[in-house]
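Re: beginner question about structure tokens

> Can someone show what the tokenized structure looks like for a real chain? I only ever see the sequence side.

Sure, here's an example I had lying around. Input first:
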Amino acid sequence: MTDRASIRTVDLTANRVRLGVEMTRDGSTGRLVRLRTVREVHLWLGVDALLYADDEGHLTVEKSAWSLFCGRDADAAILRYDYERDKEGYPAAHLQVAGRNTDLEEVLAMVGRRRSRLPHLHLPVGGKRFRPALEDLVEFLIDERLVEAKPNSKEMLERTRATYHDIQLLAAVRRRPDKAAEGLLDLGYKVSEPMVV
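And the corresponding structure tokens:
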């Protein structure tokens, strides 16, 4: 799918890191990844995330963006999965799609939206805990035959996505242990009150 792209982190402070592709040492800029595609199609993948250790020491995403561009110079946006923790005014986890839809633009203008184009809409995608993973975007590219996938790519995606889902599940359990206990009780498990330290 790509040729030798490496995603890495750069330490910004004692408890904050930035994740991206071939970033500068200070983490200020990364680059887009040229995807291996069929024919003369030019597709580019953007990977960017800011992470920190929360009060309990868990690695937490403050914001992330998985982007797709096309064009010889990656000058045309296609879509972007965005996440911004505790964002005001629109869903924290959302999808933005580049493109034009004149009927939709007319409706948005009629209801008084100041910014009335498709790329300005923030389509909710699963909220803080169940938002799409980078693997979902990569799977889309493979399934729609937009990229040349390496053998066993889908199996690798399933494994890494399962790890992401497990991490999100554990985070959800930490935030709502009462609901987790309720679900386990419904399945026939024995659940006891937590030990007081």
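Each token stands for a local structural state, so reading them left to right follows the chain. The helical segments are 102-110, 134-143, 153-175, 177-186.
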